[in-house]
Amino acid sequence: xxxxxxxxISEKQLEEMVRKAPDLIEEGLRYIDHQKRTERxxxxxxxxxxxxxxxxxxxxIVEDDGMLVQGVDYYDYITSNxxxxxxxxxxxxxDPKQKPRLFLIAPSFSxxxxxxxxxxxxxxxxxxxxxxxxEDNPKEIIPIFKEITIPSIPDPVEVYTLDQRLNYITDGKxxxxxxxxxxxxxxxxxxxxxxxxxxxxxxxxxxxxVFSYLGxxxxxxxxxxxxxxxxxxxxxxxxxxxxxxxxxLLKGNYEKFK
Length: 258
Fold this sequence. Notes:
There is one protein chain. This protein has 7 helices and 12 strands. By secondary structure, it is α+β, with helices and mostly antiparallel strands. Strands 1, 2, 3, 4, 5, 6 and 7 form a 7-stranded mixed β-sheet that branches. Strands 8-9-10-11-12 form a 5-stranded antiparallel β-sheet. The longest helix is centred in the C-terminal third of the chain and has 18 residues. The protein is elongated, with a radius of gyration of 32 Å. The relative contact order is 0.10. The mean pLDDT is about 90.
């Protein structure tokens, strides 16, 4: 087995490696140009991916948080002038209708840089690299690239309102009955009873403990609470008589939970 070790390289060597073997970074990636002069400075390397989208790559041989801003700046320039780049590299079959991509290539990335990437509305990919040198042939250097996963943007916290739940009811009289019921329950113990909307229902708590859920329906509603045998049960409320019977259970469960 050949002996090898991890070696350091210069940015010029890294640039040469990615130009010669772009497929090692991503399958189907092909080299377009390097050190392209722009009004914002020279672009390290330009590629085209397998879908013919232009890819601007920013290279560093040390961890550098500043490369994100630099890369986005170049990406902005590329995107703003995509038609011109497509004409300039017509023989490379760059498709100006495809959204350009941004590659950051470095030996490592800080947690801060990786987390910032999730908030940037740019098709960005992060690649770390390591170079292997062989003792029997010092000139033979193999770069190994690994794509780093950028975390997803966390889902926004959904905020529900009582009106949203009540608006699900299309029958005006039923909605009025629900509003009157919730008002009456609140009056049992204004300081300790909490009535709040959930994703689908309305929860009713006393001293932090749920003793009932109210499920709005289009033309009726359902009250979930404990029955006389202490089993959690749903009671459809279709008419006033149904409600009067269930209110007795609600009041009893409130008394037990308070």
